[in-house]
Amino acid sequence: MAADFVVLVHALFIAFVLLGGLLTIHWPRAAWVHLPAAVYGVAIEMIGWTCPLTPLENALRRAGGDGVDLQGGFIEQYLVALIYPPGLTPAVQVVLGLAVVAVNVAVYGIVALRRQRRRATD
Predict the structure, then answer these.
(1) Is the pLDDT of residue 1 over 80?
(2) Which controlled-vocabulary keywords does the entry list (predicted)?
């Protein structure tokens, strides 16, 4: 159960890295949390670092007596496949990292334009 919780946290972190910039539209200070998380997430993909949540999840599964490659419930079927898709190669990881950069550049560009327009009308 603890390993499933780590997978859920892992999925939420990935979603935050990819889409967390949207929070800055309404809460500009969210950038202080999102930007370091996004840089770290991109570094994991682009440089090939291992996210610390992955070994933690594997260790918890082993400690619980389960194999690392579970095929059973919702977590294993949907979230694990999302986080560790089949065919995940270093080249695919670079593409994913670039996609994260592109999404966040677009979001922060939109946020900057909105702020600039607000200042111009004030």
Answers:
(1) no
(2) Membrane, Transmembrane, Transmembrane helix
